[in-house]
Amino acid sequence: MILLTFIRSGLFFRRKPVFVKERLRPGSEECPNFIESEPVPSKRGRFFLIFMSLILLGVLSGFRFTEDALAQAPAPDADAPKLLFNDGEIGAFQQTADKVNKEGWRKTGKGHYFSILKISCYLILFWLWLATTTWVNNDAERLGDDERVRWNVYVVAVFAGSFFPIFLIPTFWIGYPCILVAYFLPLFQYIAHRNADKLAADKVMTREHIWYVLCRLSGKKVKAKKAAYETGSPIQVSSGGKEIDKETLNGRTILARNMPGFNSFREILYYSLRRNATAVGVEFTPDQVKYQFEIDGIWHPIEGIFKHPLTMEEANNLSIAAKTLMGLNVNDRRSRQAGLFHIEYDKKKKADADFVSQGSKAGELFIIRFIQKKIAFSTLDELGMPFNRVEKFRSWINSEQGLIVFSAQTGQGLKTLTHVALSTADRFTRDFVTVEDINNPYQIIENVSLNTYDSKQGQKPNDILPDVFFKEPKTLLIRDLINTETLTLCCEEVKNSRVVITTFRGKDSAETLMRILSTGVDPKLLAETLLVVVTQKLVRRLCPSCREEIPANPQLIKRFGIKEGSVSKIFRKRVYPTPQPGEKNTYKPCADCNELGYNGRIGIYDFLEINDAIRQIITSPKPTIEAIRKAATDSGQHGFLVDGGPLVADGSTSFEELSRILK
To answer: Which pTM was predicted?
Structure first.
């Protein structure tokens, strides 16, 4: 016990710094920046242990020689006083002594009352106890266990208090099993305690851990075992968020990875990305889980993500894992909660995603929308704008002055239209600047100076516009026009030979113009400076691999502004053929569009160029959408049909899709 006190006090051991990364087993979380220390015997400690072992061996050898000497001692004198034994007993002793002197104590089995083998078993157990109690102390300290002192006392006191009483039991096969119980019982209880909340790769004394230790001791290379979050779909998910420190984000990620529903969450994300979805919705109801994917702007109910439908317990685990990853309240299923996370899939493909949870009538709804980091288009032609309209569009962008408004409904590519429009403008001979909210950044455009305001601090675009205009830019882009003051200031600056481009929301150009008037801007000022309103809609392209041809209906063709007699056939989405009774079903789903019938989208545009007739309507006491639309039609501006009709005629889209988008 004195020796144990010395050892545990650190007198004969020094602390060696070790990277945790070097000590954790394959598959466990690595923390390469965290350094711990492990006990390593010092030179003084090694010498003391060797010295004590030699003394113990010497004592045992001394016992052996003493036994031998006693066994070979001469018989007692017959005339000696007989105080303890009678004559018969003395005779028996004499016969035994004579036999031992003649044959030796090894053959007779007499003597040898101190067994080195049995004593060694006790010593080995004692040294194991010293090693494991030191490990328990260091392990509990490394893990930050609040009950470290209690476990230290437990593993030390149970064995130490039992060792000497049990050692005195004369029967070895009774005493030694008892001391084994006193050693292993507290040790295994601590192991069960520390393994309770650990990842499988961080647990000790499991089959995998024992095999790993044996392989390491034998020098065999151990193949790294994948953690649970590395199995399943080839997608990795990590927590994200603005103005959140990296340690907090890493902690959220590790906690979520350790939860049973994390892999199910990853499976949904990977399945949706493989289907080219832009968003995924998961609705948790008391009876089932419903999945929907937004593909090309349309929500589709989809099944077959999992081999077996999730049980309610598995669905609940999925919800907890997702919210833990975002750092949200896992118990709140009614309030709106939002978060951000990062995705890496299919060999270094990366994406970000917005996460929103909200209570619904049926239960709880998750909406996950994938954020497009890079604009996929570089020219207006790629967006689907006809050549003759591209030239007209560029003339407005590169004009000397005027207010240009880009418009679209949510999910109809307004960000893409704005980015491509500025990318195709003459930015090398003219000074372009953009004003954006720092909390809602957009992709940087080459040769366009960025100026930001902070909406979280209560700032608005008009707070920084005076400084921006002081630099005399030729073209200014203000995204998300939000107040009358900013609009008024921009209209006034247009008079100083500037082009101001801004974005608004509306389903067509006439409605967008009416919404701008409803902000309270001076109608006369707007009429003088507004140049054009460009509104974009996206229609789905028919899948060229599975679309089917149908005869053109003359009335339908005329409805979409196509010249009568110019088209004899059009296309539509393939219709699933119903097999006749007894007929073998040979239908094969389309692999290109996953049997949706559409693959990708193309833009159609409504150009509302402001002329004198429209200016008169803007400045009238009661302007209306109908009056604006009529004035545009009378001047030859036919809106979306100018682009939509030819798309139906050449089979790029169907009349059903164009009717849906124009409804």
So the answer is: 0.66
